[in-house]
Model the fold of this input.
Amino acid sequence: MRPILDHLLTAIMIVLIFLSSAYAELVSFKREYKYQASEADSKLTSRTISLEEIKRILLEEIGTYLISETEVKNFDITKDEVKTFTAGIVQTKILSEQWDGSTYVINAELSVDPSEVKNLIEKYGEDQDLKKELEESRKESAEAMAEIELLKAELARVKGLPDNKDKMMKDYKTAVDKFRTNEYLEKGVALNTYKRFEEAIPFFDKVIENMPGSAKAHLGRGVAYYMSGNREKALIDINKAIELKPGYAKAYMHRGILYRLKDDYGNSEQDLNMAIKLGPDLGKAYFQRSVLYKKMGRVRESRDDMKKAAKMGDPKALSIIGKKSWR
Done:
């Protein structure tokens, strides 16, 4: 019996050592934030704004730490760019929340693995299309928060104008709902970026539930579906994205990829041609058409597109062209 217990204790110790080493990489920051509610605020709007503000403060601190105290400082990258990459993988833990009807107090902890951030910057730092997409998501959330602050300030000045105030309070709630939806969209985009596709789907579900006319959410969910193996649902979502936004170059590109995966080369070429026509600076579209042409046996055209993709900075194209087998 004793040898079995000894082996069991040894196994437990190994697991504990492994877990402690796995979590040792996490860097955590804690803060408290107090939000003074306006007349237009409810508990829900106060919580939404408080959570965003404390995340913004903590991301600022994490960005400063990463760029000054870790290997991330060796990259030619700004603190804002570090925050953009970090926002998608940060782990947020709500420690406590209090609401007394006028003040919302929230304590939160944000944790991040510096080595994971470093790996992401190494992998995606040169991908201009990807950086632009992440930055757009953050910008949309910032613009929504700015709209909330503007409406809140205007509401404080309209005492004695009940009719106008009622409309403004309704607009305020709509702005907060929009902000919360943008947060879901930002999270879905980030999870797709980091190839956590199944985790991304529920966030896109929430966006589409609240904002069914979002072409970006339909495309994001479509990409998550086909990367998770559900091509039929993917095609429905990507078709919807194109219906909502007929000039959406990325949607045509992803539908072209999907058609190629289904061995429908004719429709794939047609969509990739349209993606390049609508987005001539979309390096990924040239890369994907190069892959398609190679499968179709059109070697010269494949090489030409690969060179164009590399010239535009597409990291996959640059990697392929850099190999001896390419030359």
About this structure: Confidence is low (pLDDT under 50) at residues 1-24. Residues 2 and 8 are 10 Å apart (CA to CA). Strands lie at 27-36, 91-99, 103-112. The longest helix spans residues 162-193.
